[in-house]
Specification:
The protein is an alpha/beta fold. Helix content is about 25%, strand content about 20%. The chain is built from 17 helices and 19 strands. The chain has helices at about 45-55, 70-75, 90-100, 125-130, 145-150, 170-175, 180-190, 245-260, 285-290, 305-310, 325-330, 335-345, 410, 465-475, 485-495, 495-505, 510-520; strands at about 20-25, 30, 55, 60-65, 110, 135, 165, 195-200, 200, 235-240, 270-280, 335, 350, 360-370, 375-385, 390-405, 415-430, 450, 460. Strands 10, 11, 12, 13, 14, 15, 16 and 17 form an 8-stranded mixed beta sheet that branches. It has a 7-stranded mixed beta sheet with strand order 3-4-5-6-7-8-9. Strand 1 and strand 2 (about 30) form a beta hairpin. The radius of gyration is 30 Å and the shape is flat. Residues about 1-30, about 30-40, about 205-220 and about 445-460 have low confidence and may be disordered.
């Protein structure tokens, strides 16, 4: 077998020639890179075979190929492992072919910390190890989806892969930094349909391989069959305080936040706290209604999350996503009026139309005790336009207010109250219909451009009259107790009845899980899966 770096027989007068390249270690020291010429008399293939055997744990069926450039034997024989400057896919092919001869069959490989910058280095992995179940590529330098496609689970490529780790690769990190974490997960699930763990987190799995309607003995899905809550949504709730105090504060605060944000320093208490968090997930109701893809709202596609996730002089304070990052928790909580202003002025420009349609905002307020004093809690739900994209976001904002004392900075600037606490949550847009007084919908969601079916429910915008007729006919074969759930999945996704049943079955008849799972795998479904 001929591979680059193999020993060569030298004639008299010849000598091994090395290039002048070097590599810098983390401690700042430099050492020459190994050349492709190995020492005389050494069989290069035997060196690679010994390397693979040393790294193999047969009991765990685990091949540890981490930090290969630091391996002393490879350095001794001047061999270039994958990821080393000057290496090629041929070295990786040799390693993977040798790994394919290991017994028992390799189940897990870690290629972490090798500075692999091209997916081409991995192009032969699926050929030699087609049944690989777990793969770590943590802390490499894969940058594009094209790099991922060299191993993606298309036909013949790692079709049995259950776990994949890409933490520390630009292709993943840049997506999360730009607020596209959900898109990254969806793209990975579409490429690797067999995955159950992605970046050490479980992902839902759904199979559409053998769809079929359920018979009379099929389990009955748990959950309500009603489409409304027994209690109706009420109007804004303000009690224990004059409504004019709440109204006057909000009607001044939001226009000032939009146009003269820095002047709000006057209304914040010297020890006030301010924080904000970004919730990037699109609510299922909003996704079904198509707000973020609708031609009527083209600016939604222009919105980016990076300014909310990393801006505000400390970034988003979403504690559910911080893990144990204590520094991040501290840096994203702004204490004092000046620190609050420093954060707010670093956030995108907004316009809250509080003087416009009142139904777009919902306000609740009531007194809260603090020691011997009585303060005021205000909760506001609403929407704003973000500039320069001019897209719409939803928000929740909670204030704790206290009366402004005479001579205070707030009082001198015309404020009757002072802000003690301000918490802002920015969300992907969802219609204000959620808090419209009256019956609260929990199942049937009326989306823009939807088509009513004969049963009175609404359908996705792309279902043809023929598709409606087919759906109604196929629903007759479904257990009557399951029929409402199946119909809702058909309406929301455009899937056929058979595929909708399979989607629900594989997600425990949980509608939200089924819809989320559909979003992950819809790119892999065949045309006949849809009405």
């Amino acid at each position: 077998m001929a591979i680059r770096g193999a020993s060569k027989h030298l004639t008299a007068g010849q000598r091994i020639r090395r290039n002048a390249l070097s590599i810098t270690n983390p401690d700042g020291a430099t050492r020459p890179l190994p050349t492709r010429v190995a020492a005389m008399g050494v069989k290069t293939l035997d060196v690679w075979r010994d390397f693979v055997n040393r790294r193999w744990n047969a009991e765990a069926r685990f091949l540890n190929l981490e930090r290969m450039l630091d391996d002393e034997e490879l350095q001794k024989h001047n061999l270039l492992p994958p990821g080393a400057p000057g290496s090629s896919p041929r070295e990786a092919a040799v390693i993977f072919k040798l790994a394919s001869h290991l017994k028992p069959e390799v189940q897990t490989i870690s290629l972490a910390n090798n500075n692999i910058g091209s997916g081409q280095m991995l192009s032969t992995l699926s050929h030699y190890l087609p049944h690989l179940a777990n793969l770590s590529l943590q802390n490499n330098n894969l940058r594009t989806w094209r790099d991922v496609d060299y191993i993606s689970g298309r036909k013949g490529k790692l079709e049995h892969l259950r776990e994949l780790v890409l933490i520390g690769n630009p292709v993943r990190e840049l997506e999360f930094q730009n607020g596209r974490g959900d898109k990254y997960k969806s793209e990975m699930a579409r490429r690797f349909v067999s995955l159950t763990l992605l970046d050490q987190e479980a992902i839902a799995a759904i199979s559409f391989d053998a769809p079929g309607t359920s018979g009379p003995s099929a389990p009955v899905p748990k959950g309500p069959t009603a489409t409304t809550f027994p209690a109706e949504m009420g109007p804004s709730f303000i009690t224990g305080i004059e409504g004019s105090i709440v109204g006057n504060f909000l009607m001044r605060f939001f226009p000032t936040f939009d146009n003269q944000r820095e002047s709000l320093v006057n209304v914040y208490h010297p020890a006030a706290t301010f924080s904000f968090s970004a919730n990037t997930a699109i609510p299922i109701r909003s996704r079904i209604q198509g707000h973020h893809t609708s031609k009527d709202m083209p600016n939604q596609r222009k919105l980016e999350w990076v300014t909310w996730l990393a801006g505000g002089a400390g970034g988003s304070r979403n504690l559910g996503r911080m893990g144990h990052g204590v520094d991040k928790m501290l840096n994203s909580l702004h204490v004092g009026a000046e620190e609050a202003m420093k954060s707010m002025t670093n956030l995108p420009k907004t316009v809250h139309d509080v003087a416009g349609a009142p139904e777009k905002f919902c306000v609740d307020a009531w007194p809260v005790g603090q020691g011997e004093s009585m303060n005021l809690f205000i909760s506001v739900h609403g929407q704003f336009i973000e500039y320069p994209a001019q897209g719409i976001r939803s928000f929740d904002r909670s204030f704790i207010l206290a009366p402004a004392s005479e001579g205070s900075r707030a009082k001198q600037n015309g404020w009757d109250v002072v802000i003690l606490s301000d918490q802002l949550v920015v969300r992907a847009y969802s219609s204000h219909e959620a808090w419209t007084p009256g019956p609260m919908l929990v199942q049937a969601v009326k989306g823009e451009g939807s088509t009513p079916s004969a049963s009175g429910h609404t359908l996705g915008p792309n279902i043809s009259p023929q598709g409606i007729a087919r759906m109604n006919q196929d629903l007759l074969a479904v257990d009557e107790r399951q029929r409402p759930f199946v119909m809702q999945i058909c309406q929301a996704t455009g899937l056929t009845v058979k595929y909708s049943v399979d989607c629900l079955q594989n997600n425990g008849w949980d509608k939200e899980r089924a819809l989320a799972n559909f979003e992950q795998v819809k790119g892999n479904l065949p045309p006949d899966a849809f009405l």
